[in-house]
Fold this protein.
Amino acid sequence: MHEKNHKTTEQTDSALSPATNPSWRFGELPAAELMPHLQRYLLAQDAKANWQLVWLNNNGRPVIGLLPRMSWSVYFNIAENQSPDEQSANYKVIRHCRDIETTNNVDNSNVITTAYMSYAEWQNSLTTYSQAYETETDDGTSTTDITENPNYHHGLIGFISYDIAAHELSPAANIELAAQPCAVLGHYDIYLSPKENSKTGWQLTVNTTANSSDKTIDDVWSDKAVVALISYLDRLDQKLSDTCLIRKHLESSTPAPLILQARWHKHDYQQAFDRTQDYLQQGDCYQINLTQEWRGRLSHKTSNTQSISNLIDYLPMLYRNTQAPFAGYLSVNSMHDSTITPDIPTNPFELLSCSPELFFTFKKDTSTGKHHIITKPIKGTMPRGATIEQDNSYKNQLSDSEKDRAENVMIVDLLRNDLGKYAKIGSVKVPQLFAIESFSNVHHMVSTITAELKENTHPLAVLFGSLPAGSITGTPKKRAVEIIAELETTPRGAYCGTMGFMNFDGSGQWNVLIRTLQANSNAPANDNLNREKHVSLWAGGGITIASSCDAEYQECLDKVGNLLSVLAQENLSK
């Protein structure tokens, strides 16, 4: 059971929270193991609540967002019979607000609005929203030490897809966007994080700000939604505390094997590779990141009691296998009722990432107020060896590879140029080139770039302006995304976009969405019988004029082979 220490205060411009937040042990389950239980249980308690669950591993500093105060789901605007203003806007932005102060009826406090806007307008609206909270949450306890990596403490969490960023980078190329959310962000003022000074347990944080300055701490923790949430978590904690029960549940809840098939055969990849070489030899690009897709289906056969086969059910197995530092999971639109909001997409979408790659870390210097940025592009891959000797041999081959070093330095130069638009003159540095980092199935070559942002440059502008990441496009970036769209012939969706968080003080961390699965349903919202989700997983690598087709094709298999095996439940007993 949780403990809570009430303390009334007259604070009006800072975050309010009890001295001791409610906490639970949840059967000692780590985050990836807890997430399926948590999502299933919360949805069962209140299916109409905006349970937009999101988990970020955040390089070992996990956070679980539960109930966003505001969420933005962005879709490419393809609707007909619109006004001229709506037709001229590229995107349909659905905002879901959880704020009991906006309505007299608590039960109808979820306010949903739709706006049509450009990418720049959406970005500006997010920046304005964040700045409104920046000073209100600056109470001296939530800022980030410049020497440490940031934790989530109050801000935005979500993802931005490759498709939307590539489309905006080259609008004239008419790059296709997948029929799914192309971006989702939420203001998570209610979230779980590891309990302080404890190796186990999760604590609940509920933030409020000067927008609710008339509330005492007792008011915050008496909010109807918070009271209900705490009761749900109490009951889930009790349920998971029965170790015998949880063991039986884990044994019986193994999801069905999920078989993904390559969309391309080897000769299809060869044709795309050869065409890539043509572009490289013609001088269109120096490097192009060519990727390929594996596809499958999740069955959604339902009974009177439970739906089965969701992507989240595979999260525990995938994370155990990869231990990916920038892993994450997000689901959206599972709660919308089409009878209430018929114009809002109701098809559930899931994003599950086992990414090893950092895109950006944003840090705020508490003494100066300045923002600093770190990016660590990956370019260069070798498989892990079956023995220590073979493993070290592969690592040394990668370290000594002139080809991989050349590819890596191309992307470093591209990112230096990207950051140069936002960085203080002379502050862009490359403290480390060609470091070798080892993961569960591969070794990667990783470089590090740092910079100090110009004054009055918001970190969100850097994030949006640097997408898509250079490591998964090529150089020059604009021409690379055009060639990628032509050769791959199908949208990437969220894959190769970014997922992470941005605190309102401008600190944050974002990954590159590689080793990432997407699941999207195209069935009608009211058709729960035999509904299927289409699942995709991608892999690729940077192609230069010196690349070998066989080696690049094998690199794709090396990158996703372990994920495919886990999903198919091969060697499950080992």
